[in-house]
Design goal:
208 residues, alpha/beta, Rossmann fold, five-stranded parallel β-sheet, two-stranded antiparallel sheet, 7 strands, 44% helix, 15% strand
């Protein structure tokens, strides 16, 4: 497999999920968190998915997958545990030039889903090329210990400073940014001294 890691803008993007069990539920939750417009095709739903459908957060077609279901969608996800359904959805996706992900079935995937760690705007994705999702989860759990919640605050400050520099038509190079983002900034954020962290960052970038 030749997987290339990317992040996709999902807000309001129409996505189809085939399946209504626990695995499908996890995929739907992640897609909703990214702002996708989700339709689920499945004869039955988990209680959580049923609640999402009843509240209008997802659209539900109460039936099995049938050819043609991928029309008008940007991405397809299949989580039925049935290899025949996986293969049928993958075939339709490839015929339409559309990417499909089949849970625990790399042979029918155009893309795979990494184990994800989020700290505000900071997102870390861990993948093993589809060979071992369990290992990817284990590595993500190890990273959770190191990447504590104060990284969310640091990411917010860095994003704000970057926008300010762009407005002032300043463009520090990559090495300058690397030198500026020293560990003391995160320590300041952890202590609640965000204004001081922001000031130090601007000074190091030559924009105080």
């Amino acid at each position: 497999m030749g997987y290339y890691p990317i992040f996709i803008e999902m807000r309001d993007r129409p996505v189809l999920v085939v399946g209504g069990g626990d695995v499908a539920e996890r995929k739907v939750e992640g897609l909703l968190a990214a702002g996708a417009a989700v339709t689920v095709v499945s004869p039955s739903l988990t209680p959580r998915l049923a609640t999402l459908a009843a509240s209008g957060r997802i659209r539900h077609e109460a039936r099995p997958y049938q050819p043609g279901d991928l029309a008008c969608f940007a991405l397809g996800f299949v989580a039925t545990g049935d290899e025949r359904v996986n293969a049928a959805v993958a075939r339709e996706g490839r015929r339409r030039g559309m990417w499909v992900n089949a849970a625990d079935d790399p042979a029918h995937c155009d893309f795979i889903l990494p184990a994800v760690l989020r700290r505000g705007d900071l997102t870390v994705a861990v993948a093993t090329g589809g060979t071992s999702p369990a290992l990817a989860r284990a590595v993500r759990e190890e990273l959770e210990v190191y990447l504590t919640d104060d990284y969310a605050g640091l990411a917010e400050i860095v994003g704000d400073v970057r926008r300010e520099l762009r407005a002032r038509q300043r463009s520090p190079d990559a090495e300058t940014w690397h030198q500026a983002l020293r560990p003391d900034l995160r320590a300041l954020v952890a202590e609640g001294r965000r204004d001081e962290a922001r000031r130090r960052l601007l000074e190091r970038l030559g924009a105080a």
